[in-house]
Prior knowledge:
The protein has helices at 31-34, 37-45, 76-102, 119-129, 147-154, 165-174, 212-225, 275-281, 307-317, 347-358, 377-388, 421-429, 462-470, and strands spanning 15-17, 20-22, 25-27, 49-53, 107-113, 136-140, 157-162, 186-189, 196-198, 233-236, 257-261, 289-292, 300-304, 319-321, 332-334, 343-345, 363-366, 371-375. The protein has 473 residues and is an alpha/beta fold. It has an eight-stranded parallel β-sheet with strand order 3-11-10-8-7-6-5-4. It has a three-stranded antiparallel β-sheet with strand order 9-13-12, with no helix packed on it. Strand 12 (289-292) and strand 13 (300-304) form a beta hairpin. The protein starts with 14 loop residues before the first strand and ends with a helix.
Amino acid sequence: MNPAINTPMKALKSLVISGKEVLPLIEGGKGISISNGASTGAWAAAGGVGTFSGVNADSYDEQGRIIPQIYHGKDRKARHEELIKYAIQGGITQARKAWDIASGQGRIHMNVLWEMGGAERVLHGILEGAKGLIHGITCGAGMPYKLAEIAARFNVHYYPIVSSARAFRALWLRAFHKVSDKLGAVVYEDPWRAGGHNGLSNSEDPDVPQDPYPRVKALRDYMKEVGLHDTPIVMAGGVWWVSEWEKWLDNPEIGPIAFQFGTRPLVTQESPISNAWKEKLLTLKEGDVFLNKFSPTGFYSSAVRNDFLQDLIARSERQIAYVPEAVGEHTQPYQISAVGKPVYITPADEARMFEWRAQGFSKALHTPDQTLIFVTPENAKQILADQGGCMGCLSACHFSNWSQHEGNSTGRKPDPRSFCIQKTLQNISHDGSVNDNLMFSGHNAYRFARDPFYSNGFIPTVKQLVERIASGF
Length: 473
């Protein structure tokens, strides 16, 4: 799809979202401090729906400086409590900021991840502390069965993020049918094209993207079955020009439709990301965004292929299987540490191991899958320090083995093939290196370099971007 810039398009029809008629254009909530009160307030002021991230949002001191999220607790449980306090205060701060900027225009939503650490407590804390300032809660990354109940308690609308009709059906039958009046819309997030964490199921091939139309039609078909004919669907992931989605407008098979933009709002004047990050996005090529499974959440995620991701790829490639006793081809003993019994590897893997050690990757680290990865001593030291410094930012973390349930442990070994997501997202969102940190992005980010709107490095205001999108482009 590549329509000419001046091709006429059906007019976008406003929708009632969270109790107010607005443009059907929604800012996608993005991670730690990436969608904040400034971007959200500006998007709402432009007549759409702004969405700030409630995931460890920033708060400020009396001089307006960002308060660093530093942890003093001596164990993970204590640091987890500090994290929740930071998250609640930051969410309240950003809600107030968005409210002031919006000046009564549009709608203000908050995005949270159900799999974030202390999700229910954070939601309650922010909604209690920012009563009347937040109109809707968008929630994905998991199955948020209690989302409707929480929304009803605080008299706000809720917007579950799903990637299939099957997922919404499970949510509806178990919980959402009890609070249907507060269901503002259902967000369909394309699991192959969206940025951040993706909802691919085990039966879906990550390398074979599917056409979203039949999947969204199936979602609408089920919604009609349960009486949700007029409840909007929000198409998220892979949306760039609305004109490319014209057949979705006024389409009885799809019904009321809105569009969510996560990647394009990154390159705006109000976007809080660094200039280096914006400049990087403007130069990406097709294929530079990589769908991977390194995230400690266990979900697939989409991020820019940079030095950070290349290190994770190489780390996993320097991997060999072992067995505790010699069996079959596993005949070569390998002493992992100075104490304990050796494990056994194959002769071929022994040769690879010697080659890696000669290159400086001399430190072996266990994975939960009875394999070893080989890293430099410096990297090993940093990995172990990051695992030890865990503050429980996820409900369950593959990297550190933290769990907010089950005695605060997943019961599995920490996985050094992953990374501390809290550390790297805090770093990049506060002017850290765009090469040495995780940089989430949707797969359409290469279009910044091709879209004439961004010629000569032009960075629009949110108002200019919303007006441009409303025109179809």
